[in-house]
Amino acid sequence: xxxxxxxxxxxxxxxxxxxxxxxxxxxxxxxxxxxxxxxxxxxxxxxxxxxxxxxxxxxxxxxxxxxxxxxxxxxxxxxxxxxxxxxxxxxxxxxxxxxxxxxxxxxxxxxxxxxxxxxxxxxxxxxxxxxxxxxxxxxxxxxxxxxxxxxxxxxxxxxxxxxxxxxxxxxxxxxxxxxxxxxxxxxxxxxxxxxxxxxxxxxxxxxxxxxxxxxxxxxxxxxxxxxxxxxxxxxxxxxxxxxxxxxxxxxxxxxxxxxxxxxxxxxxxxxxxxxxxxxxxxxxxxxxxxxxxxxxxxxxxxxxxxxxxxxxxxxxxxxxxxxxxxxxxxxxxxxxxxxxxxxxxxxxxxxxxxxxxxxxxxxxxxxxxxxxxxxxxxxxxxxxxxxxxxxxxxxxxxxxxxxxxxxxxxxxxxxxxxxxxxxxxxxxxxxxxxxxxxxxxxxxxxxxxx
Length: 450
Description:
- The chain folds into two domains: about 45-105, no CATH class; about 105-160 and about 185-450, Leucine-rich repeat, LRR (right-handed beta-alpha superhelix), CATH 3.80.10.10.
- The protein has about 450 residues and is of the alpha/beta class.
- It has 18 helices and nine strands.
């Protein structure tokens, strides 16, 4: 008979005592069965480590894709991730790692769109003619063309200025040599890009250098003739463009006319912004022609050199136009001849909602002409005549007209030398119209919901 290994009188079963005495001593003191990843996780981690060589994504389940989004390296080449990784956490991580400010609401809440638009913008803004290879842009187009809808280019760099040769310093430079030494482009050539961006709807563009330092030259802040020719052709080829904003680029009449020539009969252009340039009457006449051969809804020509002749041309086009909703001629050189022409044109126009003539040289005569419009036209929503010398008579005319108006919800007559009593009455009518407009919109909203 075998002898029991347990002491006499023990009150526990042999099997339980065996489990209590058993011990596992691991080499890793932090090891625990709870932290051992499951096989599927190990497989996904292997996919992420080898993603560049063997990109596997579409066959994964939604939960597995989310896991990959969270852990995939943001340094992977774009030719691997661009057309494979869908919008989501991965592109959010890419954006937040690269830029401090990331407001995705400006990109229709698409992180992928934000990344590719800002990536393209940075590439163009740092492009140096004859130094940066154009293939860096061309190779990117197939990767981002489905996601880029807006480009906001706030800087365009000129070619690198070569140091003067010894012969030039002594006045021995030959005229023919300058032609051969001329760079192939003065700034980035948009002709190689815009026709390939098939989803582009907005282009904001300024020919300037943001941080020129002690190397300042005026030519850093202007579009050259060659730039204008290439951009004009590029704009014509971009059939999806809805908004063009070309500002602070030293555009004068010649360049404006060339740009407009290529925008005539554009199928999708709805908003044109040529503000803060040097456009005069000849350029304004070209823009007036565009109003008759396009479907523009917004035209901004503020801070240019348009005077009465240009304003009269725009007014003539406006009298026949049925699409323009907003016209901004702030900070130009309009006098009463141009202002009265615009007022007369609006008597035959039932489309324009917003008119801005602030900061010109119009007087009470223009105010009287516009007063007739305000009294008869119930389409116009806002009129801005600020910083003009309208005087007491102009104010009285506007006051009387506003007493018949129910549509104007903004009438800016600050700094116009209008009598305070007229200003008070006009503001009261504007406030009443605003209240009625809010009620109307609220009722329409309730009707739609029901």
